[in-house]
Amino acid sequence: MTNPALLFLQDLTGGPELIDWEWLRENFWEDVVPAIQGHIFLSFVSVAIALAIALPVGILSARYRKAYPPVTFVTGILYSIPSLALFSILISLPGVALGPTPVIIALVAYSLLILIRNTVAGLDSVPPETIDAARGMGLTNRQILFRVELPLALPIIVAGIRIATVTIIGIATIGAYINGGGLGKLIFDGINRQFPTMIIAGAVLATALAIIADLLLLGLERYLRPWARARRA
Amino acid sequence: MISDLLGVFARPGFTTLLREHIVLSAVALLIAIAIALPVALLIRNTRVGAAIAINIGNVGRAVPSLAILALALPLLGIGFWSALVALAALAIPPILINASTGLREVDKGIIDAARGMGLSGGQILTGIQLPIAAPVIFAGIRTSAVQTVASATLATFIGAGGLGDLIVEGLQRRGPEILLAGAFSVALLAIITEIGFGVLERAFTPKGLKIAQKRRGR
Description:
The structure holds 2 protein chains of 2 kinds.
Chain A: H1 4-13, H2 21-63, H3 68-80, H4 83-92, H5 100-124, H6 128-136, H7 141-175, H8 183-193, H9 196-223, H10 226-232
Helix pairs in contact in A: 2-5, 2-7, 2-8, 2-9, 3-5, 4-5, 5-7, 6-7, 7-8, 7-9, 8-9
Chain B: H1 2-10, H2 12-42, H3 47-62, H4 65-76, H5 80-104, H6 108-116, H7 121-152, H8 164-172, H9 176-203, H10 207-215
Helix pairs in contact in B: 1-9, 2-5, 2-7, 3-5, 4-5, 5-7, 6-7, 7-9, 8-9
């Protein structure tokens, strides 16, 4: 009698047909490492561009409240479009070819809602008395924004960056289908060649990348809340 | 171009793909609810259980949807059932996180008051904890629903059909009208799901909570 659960575990960890360690060793530098690099590149560039758009839009939305509902409506619709559909629509546009560009555009579109919402929430969380005090000390509006409001809002903004980054690392895998590169390429190649090793390598590495990014940004978030740390100590 | 697009919607295969997509998403969501809600209820009064559930949920949320679907291929094979298992697994984390935080965030004072009035544990759950947590629980189900409809598009890669088939066909045959027909129908389905569950969420918010929300200026 063999235990099916044990067999399954054996398949998962060491079964010759599921993970071909030989292949991994031989193709590590050629296939795996470039896929990781490509994935980090796609995610990093997308979050950076999204942040460059979301911060000003978020600050303006917090100032001019009337602009906020339409902004969340539009970015909310973008956010709910399934990624494979958004990729398809983008590559159908004239002048957009298969490759990393449409993937980055889509990833930026997905980050906007989260980043803008957290920027506004962060600015809202600054107590009005603090701003009054800053004004009483003679700070100009610009100084209040950059020296008081944004630093105090930063932990919540970073929390948004964290959610956006994890989301984007996941969606970026699908971008490989329209030649965006990254770890999704391993997954799709594995599916096409019916070679589980590549599927598992791509899936596990993409998950690991998302979890590592999550933990790093969580650390940053905590570090940026020195007052919370002081209270605990 | 527009007529080409409409031609794709008129194909006899289109309704089949649409039905596959909806059935796959709906059944996966129901399975996820059937697993996540009882677990959240069971652990609602234990601090350790809630911490474990939320951490598992957070890790689960970090796993890319394509990763889970692709992993189902070598482990469970091709077709509807492996896509169903993968999609259900993907739908669990948001429901689990929202349900257990929603139930835990019910004001302890309210529960104490209810206990003082002589309500039993079951009555407190159905009369107080569940109604107050309902909007948060529903928000979790809504997130899962939209995400499931989106991820079901990827089911095509493991041979489980759905509207993703149109996108793949459109890309491979370089048929832009097929590609766009697939993309638009999936996008529309996701947006309808988002709006529909938003309406449900509001319907399940108790009147008293709506008044409180309004007072807080939300």
